Each structure stands twice: as structure tokens, then as C-alpha cells.
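Morning. Coffee machine broken again, so started the prediction first thing and wrote up yesterday's gels while waiting. Chain of 438 residues, entered below exactly as on the submission form.
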Amino acid sequence: MYKSSLAMAVALGVFAQHAAAAGFVEDSKLSLSSRTMYFDNNNREAHGAVRPDQRESGQGFKLDYISGFTQGTVGFGVDAQALWGIHLDGGRGYHKGGFFPDDGDGSADQWARIGGNAKARFSKTEAHFGSALAPNLPILVSNDGRLLPQTFEGATIQSKEIDNLTINAGQLTHAMGRASSNHTGLSVNGGTEESNKFRYGGLDYKLTKDLTLQYYYSNLEDFYKQHFLGATHLYQIDKDQSFKTDLRWFNSSNDGKNGQAGYRFNNNGGYASTPGQVDNKTWSAIFTYTLGGNSFLLGHQRVNDDGGFVWLNQGSLVGEGAGGSSFYLFTDSMINQFAKAGENTTFGQYAYDFAGLGVPGLKASVSYLKGEDGKNANGNGTFSEWERDARIDYVIQQGPLKGLGTSLRHGVYRGAGTSSLADQDQTRLIFNYTYNFL
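Came back before lunch.
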């Protein structure tokens, strides 16, 4: 964090002389985002835990400054971000979910961090370097499921020089957890050692106006290598009716020290043909039919029998607040992930946008996921699990509170078998508001 702050200070000094240049100031944006969140997780079967439930609430603030670019063949700019989390309530003993940093005797009262990126633009290519990176790519998704977002440190580049083709590449070295003031190295679920080198590259090619093809490769040094292939197609039946197909395939294998002490992957608590090592192929197919404000989604996912799906996950590292990660599959749901070896998961979702009934800003959805044939960690027998999630969201469209958003979410999870989770009921109530100064 200190190195990032120093780099940020240097960048600010370099760019200060250009502050009056057209573009740098005129295109700048300054905003303050507020998130208030109540989190209640009822572990109905806690396997002997004394006080298994998690009930906490907190307040998060995020201040973002995004500059424009200076004039010239190569334009320069700078982005800065300040994050502050405040613990509002939550009894001692109920703090178990990585919602807040742990001060050793329960939830910390507050925590904060500052980061930023230097950036440059040449033609249709942009490069970013710093500690406030938030990738949203098939091989890495920054998590924003609690008060403050997860961010990464490193360098990224995106190029759109060729029509219909977007190229992404980068190298990341550290992650800042959503409940932490500090950074850690990079790891996987079960790994207690850190890697400081996650490299990736990939492209999105719009073959036609309706069909996009994707290929990405990533490598977390000493943990895993991963290939991704994706295809999305949108068939517009008429202006109020469409059918979307979304196909995704991952092929992951071990790298370097993976499998050795400290570099072991626990396969999400499930089976592994080679214990401690990454060995996985996962595919999913998602089909969505939209008719007016109605949206019907149906899909299936298959995780192969050799090992669980793998993604960047710092939750096993020593250090408060490092946990909390996301990945690019529909089964990354509210409570569970359906990503253990052998799982066949069928899922569906119905969503409705009330704008057609004269209530713009109001949306609701309910989803159901059923996983079967998952292999128990000991290799004997299988497990099954299901989850039902419902949510309703509303954003005020006008008046003095325009932009204030409310989200109520409720999830129910049940499992059967030694590798399933404990039964859980989870509720989240979230208030979001962003004020734009510039």
C-alpha cells in the first residue's frame, strides 16, 4: 500500500503541470458513493458451532476522482480512490463472515484505505497502473458483494485499435480485500502461500453485430493456468422480444509449486483426483428469453470429475479481511458456488422490470439452482445441494432523492452429503447512493 501511495504521489506531481490542459480537467469526474448494508446469515445446521449466526450492519463510503487525459499524441491522467468502512452494529460472537476486519476481539470499529492509478492513452489504447484496479473479465471478476469493493494492484492495458476487436492484457501483483485496509499477495482457496504474479491476456471479437467470441488465458504463478472460451449471441425477434445464448468453457491446470505445502488447492472442499492440485474443465450454457419486461433464463453447468473449478481467492491467507471473491459463472450465487468436482447444476431465473407497468426503477427476480452428482471429498459417494434466491431492487427516478437505490435480497440453501455446506438462510438489505460533484 505504501508503494502504491508513493507512486500515486509521484504521478500527481508529474500531472500537476498539465492540470490546466483541455481534457484533463474538463473531463474529470468526482463522486461520493454511500452504501448502508444489513447482513443476516442464519446457519441452520452449524455442525456444533456455539453461536453460528452472522448478523451485522455497516456503512461504507467511496470517494472516486477520475481525471480526463492531457492533450498530445499520448494523453496522461490519474485516478484516485478513498474507501472508508464503519461498523454500525453486530454482537460479539456473531462476527464470522468477513464482513468487517477482525481486531482480535470482534469486528473493528472502522477501516480505510487509499489507492489510485496513473493512466495513459494513445489512439484507442489505454494503460492503467496502480492499486485501484477493478477488472471485470472472464478470468477475473472484482468482488463488490459487501460494503467496499475488492481492488487489485498492478498494470492493465486495453486496446480497441482494430474495429470490433477488444484486446485486454495485464499483470496483477496484490489484492486489497473488501474488508481490509491492507494488501496481500494472490492465492487460491486453500493456499497459504502468496504469488505476486497473475498474468492474463485475451480478446473479445464482435464477429457480427449479434455474435461475440472470446478467448482468454491467465496464469497465477505457482498455482494454476487457465484457458477460457466464450460465445454470446443475441437474436432480436422484434423490438420487445429477444433470445440470448451464452456459452462458457474453462480449462484449468496446475502450475509450478501447486500441490506443495502452502500452494495446495482445496478444491472448494470437494473431491480431487490429485489432492492439492488444480485439474478442472467446466462448461456452462445459458439461454435467456426476454418478452417486454419479462425475462426467463434457463441453463446448465458441468464441472468435471477430476477437481473443482478454480479462481483467484485470498480467503485462506493469514490476515484480516482478505476473503471475498467472485468468478465468471452464473452459479456464483448469493450463498453457494456449485463449483465442486462432478457437479451437474441446472438453474433458472425469472426477472421482471416494472417500467412497463409505469414504475420505472423497480425490478424483481427469483432464481433456483440445483446441483447433483457432486463427488464427496473422500471420493466415496456423492452429494446434492440447491439454492433459491430472490431479490427486489428500486432506484428513485426523480426528486431530491433521485438515484437512491434499495435492494432486498433473500437466499435459502440446503444440501445433502458430506461435501455440501451447512443449511443457511441469508438476508441482505442494502441502500446505495452516489453524489456526483463533477
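The chain has one domain: 2-436. Going to sketch it on the whiteboard this afternoon.
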